[in-house]
Amino acid sequence: MLGMQSRRGNRHTGFLSDRNAFMSLVAVTDHTFPVLDIEQEIISREGASLRDGNSKDVSVLKGLVADADAVIAQFAPINAEVIGAMNQAKVIVRYGIGVDNVDLEAARLRGIPVCNIPDYCIDEVADHTLAFILATTRQIVPNTLLIREGKWGLATALDQMRTLRDQTVGIVGFGRIGREVAARLAPFKCRRLVFDAFVSEEAIRGAGCEPASLEELLAQSDIVTLHCPSTSQTKKLLNAESLSHMKQGSVVINLARGDLVDTASLIAALQSGHVASVAIDVCDIEPIPADSPLRTLPNVIAASHIASASPKAVRTLRETAARVAVMALRGEALPNVVNGVSR
Length: 343
Hints:
By secondary structure, this protein is α/β, with parallel strands linked by helices. It has helices spanning 37-45, 58-65, 80-84, 104-109, 122-137, 140-148, 176-185, 201-206, 214-220, 240-244, 263-272, 311-330, and strands spanning 25-28, 49-52, 70-73, 92-94, 114-115, 168-172, 191-195, 210-211, 223-226, 250-254, 275-280, 300-302.
């Protein structure tokens, strides 16, 4: 166990004690990294210890976080039950931008700030979005597969080979990533519509885009790309009804959160041809089930939630999460608090 200072049993948590009586403890609930060497280095410099639980099981998580002074989580369900087990946590830090796996209200009621890392992968996700848009409009994957099959020629109907300049792209969500996507689209000279209820029309126009209601955006866009968070207002944003209002033969791009789209409705729209193609890095549920048509339909490009990945982005994510935890141990003001708790 990383950061282990002692091997005294802890009958309250079920974990071996990994700090002495005077040492602060940072618990990492789960992670996809081979080891936590980056976090360990930063946290140990503060004289604190690190506990690597790497579990998504609620009963295990409760013991893991019970005596932690700071908690870092990736995908584990940090629900009200887990938060209720936190006896002295000064912060919950999410490895990433979205915080939909953390019960923000439960943390607020306990007075625990929740912080995300909003700016570690902006360029990576914006680049990946452009890659998806170009791949769908120029039919890169079908034409590559045709050649691999030993054939030659055009793999799709000619009308599927689109010129991006002639397309209207609807951007749902105009935060850091949405704005970078808009900036990358500008040289292609396509029309860009933006819907974001929290961004002024002046700011949207200042970026060279056109403000639109969600209904207008869906009805007019050839390509709809999602860059909004998952909230009670945005879950299932694209469903059977809203998809029916999109243009015949439109394209859906989703690199935000899987539950922004009703998966069954999207599959039905693909199979009927109402939606010409989709490119997704996220899905509800993940991993995509083995028998899902999303794995086999020829008009689907799917990636396994990897759009944020680059060596630089992953290091920045991990360093920032560890540093925010250390700031909480020091009693410093915390950045990027998403649940309104200040200490």
